[in-house]
Amino acid sequence: MKKSYTLRMFAAAALSFFAAATASAQGIVSTEAPLPAIYITTDDPNPEINREEYIGAKYYLKANGTEGVEDIASEEAPLPLQLRGRGNWTWVGYDKKPYRLLLDAPAPMAGLKSSDYFGLHAHADDNLGFMRNTLGFELARRLGIDWTPSHSPVELYLNGEYRGLYFCTELVRVDPDRVDVYKQADNDNSDLTGGWLVEIDNYNDDPHITFKSGSGNNVTISHKTPLSLSDEQAAWLKNQMETIDRGVYAADKSVAEWADLVDLDRLARFYIVHELMDNYEAFHGSCFLHRDRGEDRKWMFGPVWDFGSSFFRGSGKFIWQDAGYSLVWIEEMYKFPDFLNKVKEVWSDFCDNGYDGLDEFIASQAERIKAGAARDFERWPEYGNADMDACVRKMTYMLGNKTRWLGQQWGKIPASAPENVELFLRGTFNNWGTDQMLMPQDDGTYTLEIPSLMDQVKIASADWSTAVFGGNGVTLLKAGVPYQMVSGSGGHNISVYGEITDAKLTFDPVEQTLLVEGTQHEPVVEEVHVYFRGDMNSWKTDMEFAKRDDGIYALDIDNLTGKFKIADAKFLDINLGGDNVTPVEPGVPYKLLKSGKNISLSRDVARARMEVDLDGKTLLLTDLDTSGIEEVSADRTPVRIFTLQGFELPAGTAPAPGIYIVLDKSGKASKHFIR
């Protein structure tokens, strides 16, 4: 049963959240302790670093008193390593670059298990306090995935330059301490069953196989181990993936036959992690699977890796809904009762034994890096996280929201999950989506800061039914002026006066007011373009009205049929419809309504003229079919002329072309077409 919130319940939920978030941080002592620092000096002082080739370098690490971390080498006696770039979009899209390290000898970098392979993740794309991967990895551990990468915050100095806050991370590879499967050799046909480490990939740069999925899309599977395949190895791997795919897209969902090849329990745990994080890029890229050697072994999803696309929208969706990416298999897998039952079983155990303490974990991890994040923001103000406390509140809020929503889908909600109410600023600027979440404050209000606010907006929940707040359809929203909102389906879209930049929104759900502070810019006066938009032209803008000297907009249309509206290109300033009851009758003035329903016709019209009065919001439809109607010529000028509605034209007025009632000198009335 869907919960319907009263206004005071909104405020209570906001206060409840804020109290819970504050309690999570209590007892966390801010030590302002420095983080471990890694110093790397390349052999070439002006290197060209790329993702393909390692370059020579030396390094040392200072623990700076961090518990569990030991110094490695020294400035006077650094150790050799090799360095290259890593990542895909994170490499090309940001100046703060991620790197891959290959040490000459294994070492316990930043307190991690001793190894010779590590990554230095920049997380320049993480605006939630560098916490996306940290929380995702923690959830994987709590959900019992046997190996999950560990990472440790460090500050990087490259060739003497401070490069910011990084995370030294264990890389995904076949190793007894990482992905513990048999390491199958390259180009080896001795036992094709394994071990394997592969990735569902959204790039085809790495060695890979490709197949056509039952979804209609091509799927790329990159193979990490082995890296180079014989023809037999490639054929075996492709056959395995295609067999899984055929089973997943089978019409009969009663039995998951593909579970003969895929471990359901591991898949359920892997899936729940990404669902909790709302990682809508999961199962699209950076999605690892592995398989140990043996005919009876199954493919295991994991380890988890990249959570960069997490927590960017509202909680009321599964990860494949409105993802913007084609997710491989998971939406179809969810349709199988075998899999869904396993998900619910694992979820129930997580609610009882895994959820508690997550808020405290987020707060403690954020406190651990707080000083480093401040320094990183000074170095990278375009990427950094200026307010770590706000980041903690937002991540805690979004995790709680998604947890509660999933609990509603799967029949159990953790006892300690907060009672949150999500509200979003939704409008033409974001296609009415849920990417702009308002955050609850300790006074019961909700706030949001955005660079620009314009066009039309509403405040609503993700489902458009738990909560929706609009306006009265008349008043414009201006900077610095409290706006009285209308709740429920009766509220109109709120039109913003001009543009408000550097906008800070404060919404009070109890008073139903919205205050926007920022810089008010006057609206730009542009030429008005009015279009007929309807079924017959697929609601496009290819049928434009012409403005006459009398200010009326006119358009002739052949074979007028279907429903329509009168609107501008974006349905913003001009969006005129009807009452959803009264059809348009030729010759009868029709009252237009702002943001009204689609207009219907009383009948199709072979030759129609539409005349729109924007000021009076009226539409006059004239049937121009002249069959059976006498045409008035120049030598038969009528004495008096009336419109079809009975209004007489002033004497001497030249009527616009159309159909009129005329009186001749004898007083006889008849219908005429005047060209």
Care to describe what's here?
It is a single chain. With 675 residues, this protein is of the alpha+beta class. Among the domains are: 196-353, no CATH class; 423-521, Immunoglobulin-like (Sandwich), CATH 2.60.40; 531-623, Sandwich (Immunoglobulin-like); 630-674, no CATH class. It is 19% helix and 29% strand. The chain contains nine helices and 33 strands. Helix 1 (7-25) crosses helix 8 (358-379) and helix 1 packs across helix 9. The protein is elongated, with a radius of gyration of 33 Å. Residues 24-31 have low confidence and may be disordered.
What is the topology?
Layout: H1 7-25, E1 37-42, E2 55-62, E3 79-85, H2 89-92, E4 99-107, E5 115-121, H3 132-142, E6 151-158, E7 161-170, E8 196-201, E9 208-212, E10 218-225, H4 231-248, H5 264-276, E11 287-291, E12 300-301, H6 330-333, H7 337-353, H8 358-379, H9 388-410, E13 423-427, E14 437-440, E15 446-460, E16 468-470, E17 483-484, E18 486-487, E19 494-508, E20 513-521, E21 531-534, E22 546-547, E23 553-560, E24 564-567, E25 575-577, E26 590-591, E27 593-594, E28 605-613, E29 618-623, E30 630-631, E31 640-642, E32 658-663, E33 669-674
Parallel strand pairs: 1-6, 30-33
Antiparallel strand pairs: 1-2, 2-3, 3-4, 4-5, 5-7, 6-7, 8-10, 8-11, 9-10, 11-12, 13-14, 13-15, 14-15, 15-16, 15-19, 16-18, 17-20, 19-20, 21-24, 22-23, 23-28, 24-25, 25-27, 26-29, 28-29, 31-32, 32-33
Helix pairs in contact: 1-8, 1-9, 5-7, 8-9
What form results from the Cα inertia axes? elongated
What is the average per-residue confidence, as pLDDT, rounded to a whole number? 90
Q: Helix- and strand-based class?
A: alpha+beta
- The fraction of residues assigned to DSSP E strands is 25-35%
Percent of residues in helical segments?
10-25%
The biggest sheet amounts to: 8 strands, antiparallel
Number of strands: 33
Q: Terminal Cα separation, in Å? A: 64 Å
* Rg result: 33 Å
- Flag low-confidence runs: 24-31
Q: How many H/I helices?
A: 9
